[in-house]
Specification:
35% helix, 9 strands, 201 residues, Endonuclease, Chain A, alpha+beta, 26% strand
Length: 201
């Protein structure tokens, strides 16, 4: 497979389109701590320069809590592949969803920041015990991405670290997006980091 860096206009176009979508959604918190009276999740699409139309499956914010539940559900719906790229990863329920995907026979690979391995020790030990493929990225000052790629068309991204603090203490955001070309761009970048990272076992 030939790897390439994403062009600058892809990043700018994606950011602009997602900003427009956020404004169009009117600041709704979708899914987080919903009640029976709450509106159902809103989906929207946007055309991004160089990328196919991108569908917003979920927009969530903390506080309140509830974002991790949506993320777990997304991982549990995966059918072929789950690729993780994380700086902080301490949330047990999210880790268990990743392990379940591995146990279902999906291709699962986890890429973590090498310098935060001490704070991620609990989850690292879980993944090692379950024989989940894992590498540590130490090439950068901080490997600060928070991305999960599901199958060939879903991108999970945002400020939300996969941690208990992100769920219960911090102000964070999470987007779950569907778009095959967008997912390919993210996957190519994920592969570049995977290649220069060292095994986590």
């Amino acid at each position: 497979m030939k790897f390439r860096s994403s062009p600058w206009w892809l990043a700018v176009g994606t950011a602009a389109a997602l900003t427009a979508l956020a404004l169009a959604l009117g600041g709704h918190t979708l899914g987080a701590a919903r009640t029976e009276a709450s509106p159902p999740p809103i989906t929207a699409t946007a055309q991004v320069a160089g990328v196919d139309s991108v569908q917003v499956l979920y927009v969530g914010f903390t506080p309140p809590v509830g974002v991790a539940k949506e993320l777990v559900a997304a991982i549990d719906r995966a059918q072929k592949e789950v690729l993780v790229q994380a700086y902080g990863f301490t949330h047990n329920a999210i880790a268990q969803a990743v392990i379940r995907a591995h146990q279902r026979g999906l291709r699962v690979a986890v890429l973590l920041d090498e310098k935060s391995d001490h704070t991620n020790r609990y989850v690292i030990d879980l993944f090692r015990g379950a024989s989940v493929d894992m590498r540590l990225d130490g090439k950068h000052a901080i490997a600060h991405n928070k991305v999960i790629l599901i199958d060939s068309d879903i991108v999970v991204t945002g400020s939300f670290n996969f941690t208990n603090s992100a769920e219960t203490r911090n102000a964070e955001n999470l987007l779950i997006l569907r778009g095959a070309k967008l997912a390919t761009a993210y996957r190519d970048n994920w592969q570049q980091h995977w290649q220069h990272s060292k095994p986590g076992f």
